Request: fold
Amino acid sequence: MIQDKNKYYSFLKHYVDFMFKSAYRRVEYHGKEKIPHDGAIIYAPNHTNTLMDPLAVLALDQQAKVFVARADVFKQPTILKILTFLKMLPINRIRDGRDSLAKNEEINNIVVDVLHDKVPFCILPEGTHRTKHSLMPLQKGIFRIALQANDTFGNEMPVYIVPVGIEFGHFFRYRSSLLVQIGEPINVTQFVEQHPEFNITQQINELREELSCELKKVILQIPDDENYDATLELSQLYGKEQQQKLKLRENSLINRFTAAKETVSNVETSLKSDPQETQELLDMAGDFSRQRHALGIGMSSVLKSHICLSLIWKKVFLLLGLPYFIFSTAATSPVTLFSIWLCSKFKDKAFYNAVRYVIALVLLPVFLLLAGLTVGFVFSWLWGLVFTLLFVPSFFFLHEYLRMVRLFMSDIKWLIHKDLRKQLEKIKNLKTRLLN
Reply:
């Protein structure tokens, strides 16, 4: 059984959660009231953004949670101590060799003890990450653990699998948006009682199908086929229009998500009723998406109804914020440069936000302390205090300023490329006939 041996864990969790949420411009959690309180909880989130996915579950509430990570990262003694402190357990995969899978039995026994103590456990059922809005086939591990826990103490309290849908506004950009939704919990104990005729294989298959269905309700499930990019583009292009049709007036992440799912559903329906014209629409949307990304034009520019006014206020912000941007760039340069260097070592961009987050989490307070003390010692305590107050928001302001520069340039490019705007009009006309 894992016990909370470190008295600093609760304090550090507050800090970890704060820095995690600070890594996003907008964060929304929905459906937390669905989480059962009368049994053992196994959180099952979708997996698109490496470390940021379990951190999104960790930040659900202040309760400590236990996680699993792939076993190869536990090999170094220092990393082992850190991950153990963070309540993480190693789990082996088939790619690690079939012999290594036998070690998972010991880990499963530990997890069952954790669940018996009503400490929530989190496992990513897809088994690996993929930066797409679609669910991969679920692995068996989560269901074996749930059924073993139910066999061990299901007569004392129920065992639940709780689906968690995680949606990022952008998979690779720091300070994007984060939407987390809790799906309908699956009562594993009740399921086993209702199906005494099922053997273990049937139980796993049925639970896997149910969890997959529940997860698809709380993520933007786009079929992973040749129309993926085009469907995603349409869901973004007509988000606001769809919100108005659904009478979702508040501009929230959850309403954007609901509108996007409606558009995806409309596309799928239209493909069945009118496949030829719908495919024509998808081809046009896919081509538009490729050109837009190649030119570096953001969707926010495309959706702006008053692009000139948008350019004016962005220009004002950039001019007024320039002095603090220069300070922020200089003050945080060691952290920023180290982040850029470390990100360059990863071929998979999905690790970028995790790298930026960990560097900010660890290095920002260290550098703040050292730099603040140095300025105070060289000049005076008052200058040290001023530097400290200016430094605290500088790292996040730097990223916000760079974001505004990117959006400013995007707006200009959208104004320049009339041919792309004409192409959008054609898409709108065809879309009005098919999807309305």
Q: What stands out?
A: The CA atoms of residues 269 and 275 lie 9 Å apart. Residues 307-416 form one domain. The chain is about 60% helix and 10% strand.
